[in-house]
Amino acid sequence: MVRTTTITSAVASAVTAISLVVALIVLGEPPTTLAQPTGKVYRIGVLSGGSAGAAPVEAFRQGLRELGWVEGRNIAIDYQFAEGQDDLLPELVTHSSGSR
């Protein structure tokens, strides 16, 4: 049981780190670029070991909105959820990266 918890915790940490890196890359645009509508839609991939109903998903969306990023207007978000089945994460990563 300890090994499973450790692996689950490690996967959750890795997913959080990956999500943060992706968000930073997308949101790393200079403020002048953010203020000017260019018509370009940026794509963000979100991979989670949890479920779609989780509060962090809405917190993520709200944080993006506060920064001027609106889903469907200037960003598209591809959500992939493992629903607690961490063994699905590698497959979800492959699916998400292949859906460009």
Protein described:
The chain is built from 4 helices and 2 strands. It has 100 residues and is of the alpha+beta class. The protein has a two-stranded parallel sheet. It has helices at 2-27, 31-35, 55-66, 89-98, and strands at residues 42-48, 75-81. It starts with a helix and ends with a helix. It has one domain (2-98). The protein is 53% helix and 14% strand. Strand 1, helix 3 (55-66) and strand 2 (75-81) form a beta-alpha-beta unit. The model has no long low-confidence stretch (mean pLDDT 73).
Features:
100 residues, alpha+beta, 53% helix, flat
The gist of it:
With 100 residues, this protein is α+β, with helices and mostly antiparallel strands. Helices cover 53% and strands 14% of the residues.
Stretches with pLDDT under 50, minimum 5 residues: none
Q: Helical element count?
A: 4
Tell me the series of helices and strands, N- to C-terminal: HHEHEH
Helical fraction equals 40-55%
The fraction of residues in strands falls at: 5-15%
Rg, Å, rounded: 15 Å
Largest sheet composition:
2 strands, parallel
Number of domains: 1
Overall outline: flat
Mean pLDDT: 73
